[in-house]
Amino acid sequence: MNPLVDNFIPIALGISLAAATGFRVFIPLLVMGLSVKAGLLPVSENFAWLAATPALLMLGIAAVTEAAAYYIPVLDNVLDGIAGPIAVGAGIMMTGALLGDMQPMLKWSLAIIAGGGAAAATQSVTTLLRGSSTVLTGGFGNSAIATGEIAGALALSVIAILLPMVAVVLVLLFCVVAWRMMLKTRRTHDNAL
Q1: Which pLDDT tens digit goes with each residue over 78-128?
Q2: pTM score, two decimals?
Q3: What is the CA radius of gyration of the chain?
């Protein structure tokens, strides 16, 4: 049996949840922990702690704190710089947790490349969107972006749990659409100058 084919759904689930960490780091971890606790999501034995009540309380507090902090001007841009490496680490961890008893070298290679890459891609896009918003609106448009990121993290996390293949397609569409919007905005801004 081919381990990639056998683990196609867990790989898609890991990529989707990892991509959601690019919007907000702690919301996907909280959704994952709640899903594990509800029995909807199997994880590796070493990651069962995600479903423990203390971990869920900590993740809930962290998710609310992180979401609220992005509404504070200037701090939102600082947090984007800090969140990048943390989102990549969370994406790697989440993907690895979902790949079960796959051969460790393959498991962690996939987690690093696919999970870390998905988290880095969405985090990069959201950082660029916020940067563009800061430049074009003086930061006044950043709260709308923060709201979209929170909604994106929550929606993508839930869709990933319920429909992992659909979530992967949504991640790809988001990256393409966001990239095109940023290019168009920059062209418009450059032409206005």
Answers
A1: 888 899 999 999 999 999 999 888 899 999 999 999 999 999 989 988 888
A2: 0.87
A3: 17
| 31 contact partners, CB below 8 Å, separation of at least 6 | 17, 20, 154, 157, 158, 161
C-alpha 28: how far from chain center: 7
With beta carbons less than 8 A apart as the criterion, state whether 145 and 45 touch: no
Q: What is the 3-state secondary structure (H, E, C) of the chain?
A: CCHHHHCHHHHHHHHHHHHHHCCCCHHHHHHHHHHHHCCCCCCCHHHHHHHCHHHHHHHHHHHHHHHHHCCCCCHHHHHHHHHHHHHHHHHHHHHHHHCCCCCHHHHHHHHHHHHHHHHHHHHHHHHHHHHHHHHHHCCCCHHHHHHHHHHHHHHHHHHHHHCHHHHHHHHHHHHHHHHHHHHHHHHHHHHHC
> In which region does residue 90 sit, left (phi positive, over 0), alpha (psi from -120 to 50) or beta (all else)?
alpha
Closest CA to 110 of 120, 122, 124, 99: 99
Q: Which of 6, 16, 172, 3 is nearest to 94 (CA)?
A: 16
Contact yes or no for 134/142 (Cβ under 8 A): yes
